Amino acid sequence: MADDKEEQQKSSKRTSWKPTRTSFVAETRQEPKHEVHPTSEYEVKLPRKVPISSSRRPLVDILSHDELCSLCHNIPKIELHAHLSGTVKESTLNELGRAKGLDISKMKFTLESLAATDSLEQTWKETVEAFDNIRKLTAYDLHVLRRIINEAIEMYAEDGCVYLELRTGLKHLPDRKTFLSEVISTINLAQGKHGIIVRLLVSVDRGASVEDARETISIAIDAYESQSKGGGQRGGGVLVGVEMGGNPLRGNWDELRPLFQQARDAGMRVSLHFAENKGHEEEHEKILEFRPDRLGHAVFMSKKITDKVLNTKTPVEVCITCHEAYYKVDRKKNVFGILKSHNHPAILCCDNACLLHTLLSKEWEVAIQTFKLTAEDVQHMVLDNVDAIFADSVTKQKLRVQCENRLKSLFTKSEAPRARKSGGGGWQSLLFLSLSAACLGGLYYLRVVKRAI
């Protein structure tokens, strides 16, 4: 083992992005030899009930590692920041590349710079290269588009996600309007097939031209308004909002703001990538003045900006793995800690699940471990997350009931008495984590392994 560690330390450059750096698996675990999502490492049978002495004790002090993994899988999770292009399985990309006769060994789908440099500029350069390669393999055929959407939705459903908001920019496949229409129709079919509620945000690339952004917003508004025709509830369709993403070192918010205002005036919800560019406090203030419905990332906030975010109570989409990988933010110093300490709405998200080798259950696991979350914290977070979704009120109420029922099956108070360790007698109730066979669905990890290979 000592020789192995010395050899690893001598290696100055990783050949591929490894999940051990920012995943929630202990660094000493053996990495899988084939493509497999981290959740699949835990192929164990768990007890039906795990006693928890207090809802306010950290879960990591109560549950074994395997029990915690199982809990994180079964929590009714809500994903609000998932880029479609970053949620394409590497095995699918390899298959598509071979089918086109391409030398996939020369195509980069992972981000080597994440482990080799602290340069944000270099990281974004490799990110653009990876996404360009992904587009070459996925943005040329509608059948491929349908496949990757289905696989992304299936992946989240298999991971115990009950609500998903995908986001994607508009591709010329064969034109942007047709592309958006195809994405919406595919989501409509897939969400019923996989038993998960799915909604869509159209992405505006802040690094592209203003004309490009204007066209994107215009197409999105037209599609959004068409959903309400024929008596349908406004905002009740698949397309619910728009978002600003892309390279935070590019673009001008002042030029994009009027376009997002148009989308808002049409009834669409708005999420904006925020504070990914350190030291740009003036832009951060202007974005907050716009009062978006949600903020994405919020990585580099000054004390002044942090206070303003806390005062507005604007929900924040937090992607812990992404922040550690891209921005070299130690997970213990992640903005999630500040938000949690102020009871601010924070939604754990993946960002680019396949690109970063993570899953939403793993994001929950690291948050529970790092920030010592309790059963009470988990329950409050899940229900707060429901309030942050962009779907209409009918869908929101349906989701709330679903989450409440799932939480009842996980966290159940038992009337069985238990003597106190000290003091003059008396009893205290036990809080049990009920991991029923129905929730587990048998050995769900085996299913994930089969799906992920």
Automatic annotation (TrEMBL):
Keywords: Hydrolase, Membrane, Metal-binding, Nucleotide metabolism, Transmembrane, Transmembrane helix, Zinc. InterPro entries: A_deaminase_dom, Ado/ade_deaminase, Metal_Hydrolase. The keyword Protease does not apply. Pfam families: A_deaminase. The keyword Hydrolase applies. Residues 28-41 have a biased composition (Basic and acidic residues). Residues 76-400 form the Adenosine deaminase domain. Residues 1-41 are annotated as: Disordered. It comes from the Eukaryota. SUPFAM superfamilies: Metallo-dependent hydrolases. Belongs to the metallo-dependent hydrolases superfamily. Adenosine and AMP deaminases family. This is Adenosine deaminase domain-containing protein.
